[in-house]
Structures are given as structure tokens and as C-alpha cells.
Q: What sequence folds into this?
């Protein structure tokens, strides 16, 4: 499995980082896209991804910087004459919104040359022995009251990618470091957002949980306070286009 970080920026726009998007590529040629921030299609093409090989897309939550690249990607598939079916996994309850988005952006099903399915986030089949599931985060707890007022569910998720005893965790947006406890134990890699956490605290929690490597992403323009050094665990800060082989 090869992970490519196409967009490593946070919700606050910056000129040097694209919005959230990461692909997992497999030996059988299939690709899964985790989150689809604005500009993700162009970023993937820049990074050598064949967008018609994307078999699944997973949207962790509906903050704009995690999904607004999806209409452009669907349009791109149509223009590229894609024929293979694709499943887009979205937060439970949001399927009708994304279905409406198709017609709103004139990607009418009757005009698409491929079958497209919206499914509620849950277990996500991958390839080469890998699978993915989701875990709850507290990222949207602060807007629960307003979410109820507008008939929306305040749900946000991270992803666990597993293959036997191997585990990789993609935090996506979290409410704080405590969202990682009980999730990351024994992971060989944690790709963790850095906009809503203290990086040193994440590293301490990860080291104590036996995580082998941490890569920080979702980096705001005013870089968080990354430590000058931190002993006992390998870590780095991602840049757009970064690849990680597993």
C-alpha cells in the first residue's frame, strides 16, 4: 500500500498547501481516496494518480475543506469516460444531500457513463489484505446545538486501516488528543492532523501507545508549535505530494 498526501493544509486557506485529500494505492491498481477537499482532482493528477482507478471515496465529515472537491472529481470522471462503478462513503444521514449535489452540479445520473453509489460510512473494503473502518471523533461537538437546529448530525470520523496485525491510523479532524486514546495502540503509522492538537502531546500519547511513526498533516498557515526535537518516536511534517510506502 502506498499512501500519498495530496492536500496537507487545514481549513484556514494557505497558498502552499491544498485542502485535505489522501489516497491509498494498491498492487492490483485500485485506489481509495480519503477526503476530497477543494482542488483534490488537480492535486491527484499533479501527483501521478490515475483518477479513473479510484474505486472508493470516503468523506470523514462535511466541513467544506474535506468534501468540496467531490463535484469536480465526479465531473472529471464523466469527462474522462470512466466506466467502472464507484462507491462514495459519506457520513450517515448525509446521503440525500450528496445525491442532491449530483443534479445541482449537473452531473445527472442519466449522463454519467458509470454507476455511482452513495453509502453510509462504515467498514470500507480496500485491497491487498487491507481493510478500513471508522472511529468517532469529537471534532464537531462544539456545533451540536446548531446542527440539531438545522437537522444535521454533528458526526466526524477518523479511519483505521488494518491488515492482520498491522494498523495505520488517519486521524482526520479531531477534537483533541484524547480522541486518539484507545485507537492508535500498536499502530505502525499515525497520520495526525495538527490544527486542533498540541503536536508534542500527540507525540507523547503515540509513543506511550507503541506507535512507530507519526506524520503531521492538516497544517494551518501559522504552523503549530512543532517541537524542535522529540525522543522515542519517529515523526515528520507532511508536504503536498508526500508518499509513504507500507
A:
Amino acid at each position: 500500500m502506498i499512501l500519498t498526501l495530496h492536500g496537507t493544509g487545514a481549513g484556514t486557506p494557505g497558498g502552499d498547501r491544498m485542502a485535505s485529500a489522501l489516497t491509498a494505492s494498491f498492487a492490483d491498481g485500485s485506489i481509495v481516496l480519503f477526503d476530497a477537499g477543494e482542488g483534490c482532482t488537480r492535486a491527484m493528477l499533479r501527483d501521478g494518480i490515475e483518477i479513473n482507478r479510484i474505486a472508493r471515496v470516503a468523506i470523514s465529515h462535511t466541513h467544506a475543506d474535506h468534501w468540496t472537491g467531490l463535484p469536480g472529481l465526479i465531473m472529471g470522471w464523466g469527462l474522462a469516460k470512466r466506466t467502472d462503478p464507484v462507491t462514495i462513503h459519506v457520513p450517515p444521514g448525509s446521503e440525500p444531500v450528496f445525491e442532491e449535489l449530483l443534479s445541482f452540479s449537473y452531473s445527472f445520473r442519466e449522463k454519467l457513463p458509470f454507476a455511482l453509489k452513495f453509502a453510509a460510512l462504515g467498514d470500507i473494503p480496500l485491497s491487498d489484505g487491507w481493510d478500513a473502518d471508522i472511529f468517532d471523533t469529537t471534532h464537531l461537538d462544539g456545533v451540536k446545538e446548531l446542527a440539531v437546529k438545522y437537522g444535521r448530525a454533528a458526526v466526524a470520523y477518523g479511519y483505521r486501516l488494518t491488515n492482520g496485525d498491522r494498523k495505520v491510523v488517519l486521524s482526520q479532524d479531531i477534537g483533541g488528543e484524547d480522541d486518539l486514546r484507545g485507537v492508535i495502540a500498536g499502530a505502525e503509522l499515525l497520520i495526525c492532523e495538527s490544527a486542533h492538537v498540541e503536536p508534542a502531546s500527540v507525540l507523547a500519547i503515540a509513543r506511550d501507545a507503541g506507535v512507530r511513526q507519526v506524520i503531521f498533516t492538516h497544517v494551518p498557515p501559522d504552523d503549530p508549535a512543532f517541537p524542535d526535537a522529540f525522543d522515542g518516536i519517529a515523526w515528520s511534517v507532511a508536504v503536498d505530494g508526500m508518499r509513504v510506502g507500507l
